[in-house]
Amino acid sequence: MTPLETLESPLEAEVAPSAPVPRHRYAKYLAIFRVSLAERMTYRGDFFLATVFRFLPMVTTILLWQAIYEGAGKMQSEMAGFRYRDMIAYLLLTHISRMFSSMPNLAGGIARDVREGTLKRYLLQPMDMIGYLLAYRVAHKVAYIVTSFIPYALLFFVCRGFFDGLPDPATLAAYALSLVLAFLVGFFFEVSVGMVGFWFLEVTSLLYIVMTVNFFISGQMLPLDLLPEPWAGLLKLLPFQYMAYFPAAVFLGKIQGTSLWLYLLGELLWAVFFMILARVLYRLGLRRYSAFGG
Amino acid sequence: MSIIEVDGLTKTYQVAQKKEGVLGALRGLYRREYREVHAVERIHFRIEPGEMVAFLGPNGAGKTTTLKMLSGLIYPTAGQARVLGYVPWERADVFRRQFALVMGQKNQLWWDLPAADSFQLLREIYAIPPAEFKSTLDELTGLLGVEKLTRQAVRELSLGERMKMELIAALLHRPRLLLLDEPTIGLDVVAQGMIQKCLRDYHARRGVTTLLTSHYMRDVEALCDRVIVINHGHLVYDGPLSRIVERFSETKLIRLQFEAEAPDDLGRFGEVVRRDGPFAEVKVGRSQVAAVLAAVLDRHSVADVSVEEPPLEEVIARVFEEARASHDAA
């Protein structure tokens, strides 16, 4: 009853497992990147609109800070080292930071994969979930940055009066590095949060709290320097500042010399920390998932 | 070597018992009560290369749990399993490259992209050589008649078409073992037939070992020679499909069409299922079929007659019921 072809299959079996050469280890994640990019580009219109509307609240923010500075009679001086125009420049720059560090639907998506069982495709196929998510997210970010480049450029051109021109090349390089690391900190932080879904089925409220707290302690609302000590110093030790405050402060030349390098090192260490945390939580979570449900 | 070896495989879940009402929920916060659910209890079986086996049982019998253990998604509570020579829940990449699990329509295809893009991605994930990939893809799209649909966004496909794409996605890496959980659920008869035909043809060509669960006896009859029946976590039957009917059904159905009105004394031969003008159907013990036929033909003028096995669905339902009765008694 067995067809002749099966005679081949034991032979194939001997060959097949050893066939994949090491280049495939990373080639598959490159392929995930390519396919994700194609998928994300189908949403480019959506991206474009989202970018435009994201800046509408900026008008209110500008007016609000104008009122604060005027009320304090500091329109011509500064608060905690920030003149009025620095403040607006800072808030615009946190949008660039968030463009790299925010991870919409990442943690929630992991929790959903666990709850609805779609997690299993990562377990059935010879690939790594975190690697997959990273490739997907990089594609997502590339698609987003490419499609929103024009509206962003336009916006910064309109707002050029708030800036003192471009910083020097060394600062720009440090800025670029801080953004790439901001992406990694944001990514592995969100993945770690998402792994909580292995223990709690519903993580929506946890995510809401994390988002709200993060909005403040990452410096999206105002520069951390405006806070009294020891709070400002304390928040600058935490990972959250790297998701908004730090890159913006680097661009504005607020952090220089040795402390710049120390903070960049700190950012790298936080990225590595969350990378390891995400991996450990994933291992523990999988053990639990495999024992209890699936 | 067997493709699947299962020895005493057992899975027991601890299920938290939720109390009713707000007070109950609050009490549940600090003290939880658990109930043990014996999803699978000490089952044994072997599946040899090239076999196509149906895995049957009512909802909640433990079929899906067993498939999940065999594909390495969950750990067993006790017992051993070897699949393709590997312990499945260790999830070695080598193992994962050699099997496929298809569960209903929970899809591995990208919704907004053409299936062809998902296939390319799978080519990379499974490290399939390009030439082999092309020939497998051509073969499968040909078998299923979907050559023209692979460039269309998956969300625009019908349910049946999507299931065909799922199947292609699962077979691209030429797995040696195919685990199918309800492959035709929710499909119309035509699409069901297409999927069955594809599975049969593919099996004939490649001899891929296949284990499938289904609620449609049509699938089972069309595809499988061997049947494993599981109920309440216990294995209750393992053998040829043809024998299950003999073993679990003591009766056959005699359909009669008389020249005149059907006589009203048929009750003495067996259970009269139907009597309607010249037509009658009688359930008769397997051993009495010949005697009954002779007696009827002797006394009445009969226009047409046929003897049938009871429908497989009915027999399977009986198997499930008997197993439940013995389970409850134990």
Any overview of this molecule?
The complex is a heterodimer of chains A (294) and B (330). With 294 residues, chain A is mostly helical. Chain A has 14 helices and two strands; from the N terminus they run H-H-H-H-E-E-H-H-H-H-H-H-H-H-H-H. In chain A, strands 1-2 form a two-stranded antiparallel sheet. Chain B is α/β, with parallel strands linked by helices and 330 residues long. Chain B contains eleven helices and 13 strands. In chain B, a hairpin with a 2-residue loop joins strand 11 and strand 12. Chain B starts with a strand and ends with a helix. The model of chain B has no long low-confidence stretch (mean pLDDT 86). Classes of the chains: A mainly alpha (294), B alpha/beta (330).
What's the layout of helices and strands?
The complex is a heterodimer of chains A (about 290) and B (about 325).
Chain A: H1 9-15, H2 23-41, H3 44-54, H4 56-71, E1 78-79, E2 82-83, H5 84-101, H6 106-116, H7 120-124, H8 129-147, H9 149-158, H10 169-195, H11 204-217, H12 231-235, H13 245-251, H14 257-292
Helix pairs in contact in A: 2-8, 4-5, 5-10, 5-13, 6-10, 10-13, 10-14
Chain B: E1 4-17, H1 21-30, E2 33-47, E3 52-56, H2 63-70, E4 78-83, H3 93-96, E5 99-103, H4 115-125, H5 130-144, H6 159-171, E6 177-181, H7 189-206, E7 209-213, H8 217-223, E8 226-231, E9 234-240, H9 241-248, E10 251-258, E11 271-276, E12 279-285, H10 289-299, E13 302-308, H11 312-329
